């Protein structure tokens, strides 16, 4: 139960963090329940991370998020780790149990699934799914995708070893980008999970690998997602989405972990002050 006049301390740990929309998002959630929060952005190195997290929770911290490059390092901190975080081998949320022990979870995957459902009106069950890239973002979403029982999930990456490591842990398939070029499968969902958007580029797929109602989704948002979304539009795909909805939905699950209250995510995108 939350206390009316208490200001709850929340934080995001990572490097960089100054660009983050998390303070805006969580303030909008908190207003729904008349909860007062102070959401801090804490820039830390790997070496400073453990001490900073312990200091935060020892100073009445309620909960915290973790962003790049610390999601894997975060596995070493909590007393308890959720099954999903263990499968993803990454943590993006710290919360306290009833015994005041730090626990770790990964809400990226369920945030992705919820956005597919709410905003994209897409169900992964019995669908063919392609993920381009095999970094930390892919690791975060694959376990939840597999829980939805897709017909097929293929992870394509330049380095086959990275793709295989994720695929084998989750009973998915791995291909190199060269092998993908020769694949004739038509996918219902193509997900861009690489960081090439930061360089104005995108991993590629072919028009023959999609159909009229296929969906394309970039896990990044804003300008970083545009190279992939431009590619999708050039191939005639009408249903294209960036990852802003996933960011909001994963934040909602984190908020629920901290306060045992489920925020309404509808309309949050329109209320965010997005930088061009």
Describe the structure.
The strands form two sheets. A six-stranded mixed beta sheet has the order 2-1-3-5-6-4, sandwiched between helices. The protein has a six-stranded parallel beta sheet with strand order 9-8-7-10-11-12, with helices on both faces. The protein has 276 residues and is α/β, with parallel strands linked by helices. It is built from ten helices and twelve strands. Helix 1 crosses helix 9, helix 4 crosses helix 5 and helix 4 packs across helix 9.
Element layout with pairings:
Layout: E1 7-14, H1 22-32, E2 36-43, H2 46-58, E3 61-66, E4 80-81, H3 83-88, E5 93-96, E6 102-105, H4 108-118, E7 128-132, H5 136-147, E8 152-157, H6 160-170, E9 173-176, H7 177-181, E10 187-192, E11 210-218, H8 226-234, E12 239-241, H9 244-259, H10 268-271
Parallel strand pairs: 1-2, 1-3, 4-6, 7-8, 7-10, 8-9, 10-11, 11-12
Antiparallel strand pairs: 3-5, 5-6
Helix pairs in contact: 1-9, 4-5, 4-9
